[in-house]
Specification:
TIM Barrel; Pyrv/PenolPyrv_kinase-like_dom; 12 helices; eight-stranded parallel β-barrel; metal ion binding; 50% helix; alpha/beta; 258 residues
């Protein structure tokens, strides 16, 4: 089933736009509900989230049951963390804070088996049906996992040409909030200066046929990103979406009472 979800998600990215959310919940029922609602993917966040590896493994199962792609965002270019995320059976891994081509190469090396990389080898993991998968099939199919490199600082933008020349990853993800901080305009995600940087990244990525993703916390901004040509848009965070929905419910209830 994992291979089917990976293939379907790859096709979606190539032919349309994938919509997902970030997740910081520790409750796998929330992940399952997001998949049942019809989201294309969910980013399980280890960088700013509090889930343990054990909790994430349950999240990955919940996503897979609904056919939703699970992407684990690790804390950085950590080969052990990258390999572990993929061993769990996640559809892909997202690596933050990529600033140089060397860091990009290290991420690729950690996420791919030979000849694409040197990912730690163990076939007795969930991704290989705990040893039940044919070895050759598993190693081949595992290298189809989605690898996303996150560019979120001025240094990464300045090194974009070299990063784009690195082979073995599938997508660049622009982190608008961290990028705004590195430009000295913290939180100004609608700044013309920030948008110019992002548009330049988009143009360069398209020239190299690299997919581009980003984060949005407003529906209006998300529509603009669709028009720009982003392939992978993560809208807000599950716990924030829940909070906002409850706030709207309370306001509507109070309005009905008046």
């Amino acid at each position: 089933m994992l291979n089917t979800v990976v293939d379907r998600f790859r096709q979606k990215l190539q032919t349309s736009v994938a919509l997902g959310i970030f997740s910081k919940t520790t409750d796998s029922a929330i992940v399952e509900a997001a998949g049942l609602a019809g989201l294309d993917f969910i980013i399980l966040d280890m960088e700013h989230g509090s889930s343990t590896t054990e909790t994430l493994s349950h999240h990955v199962r919940a996503a897979l049951l609904t056919g939703m792609a699970s992407i684990i965002r690790v804390k950085g270019v950590d080969p052990q963390a990258i390999g572990s995320a993929l061993d769990m059976g996640s559809v892909g891994v997202q690596v933050p804070n990529i600033s140089t081509a060397e860091e990009a190469r290290k991420a690729v090396k950690a996420a791919r088996f030979y000849p694409g990389g040197m990912r730690g080898v163990c076939r007795f993991v969930r991704a290989a049906n705990y040893g039940g998968s044919n070895k050759e099939d598993y190693f081949r199919e595992a290298n189809k996992a989605i690898l996303i490199l996150q560019i979120e600082g001025k240094e990464g933008v300045e090194n974009i040409d070299e990063i784009l020349d690195v082979e073995g990853y599938d997508m660049l993800f622009v982190g608008p909030y961290d990028l705004s901080q590195s430009l000295g305009i913290l939180g100004q995600t609608n700044s013309a200066r920030l948008i110019d940087y992002i548009q330049n990244l988009l143009i360069k990525a398209k020239e190299k046929k690299i997919l581009l993703g980003t984060f949005s916390d407003s529906l209006e901004n998300s529509k603009d990103l669709l028009d720009l040509g982003f392939n992978y848009i993560s809208y807000s965070v599950d716990v924030s979406i829940f909070r906002d929905s409850v706030c709207s419910l309370i306001k509507e209830f109070l309005r009905e009472k008046q």
